[in-house]
Write a structure and sequence with these properties.
By secondary structure, the chain is mainly β. 4% of the residues lie in helices and 47% in strands. The protein starts with a strand and ends with a strand.
Length: 130
Amino acid sequence: QVRLVESGGGLVQAGGSLRLSCAGSGRIFSSYAMAWFRQAPGKEREFVAVVSWTGATTYYADSVKGRFTISRYSAANTMYLQMNSLDVEDTAVYYCAADTRSSDTIAAMHPLEYRNLEIWGQGTQVTVSS
């Protein structure tokens, strides 16, 4: 069974940090771009960051640029999102996704296309308190 499992979410005060992990199983993800999305209550799912299958190329949403860092450790089928200087606006369920499309294609996708990404995790809650 092909799965992505997120972990590392929780409650943190504004200004704090969290590190999310996304572990893949059932398939080798080394040829997949991997991405983070988030969805706040009452809002559309939005793109956060993506890393290419080589790990060499990354793209970020403007709202997280300079605060979040995406990385991957392909040997372990794992991707990370280091989140610093967290703000209450970062409160959301964070999802990881994997797809064979290129990282720049994923970064430019319209939200209505997100459903077409090949594999999704179940999400992990991040809550930032003021």
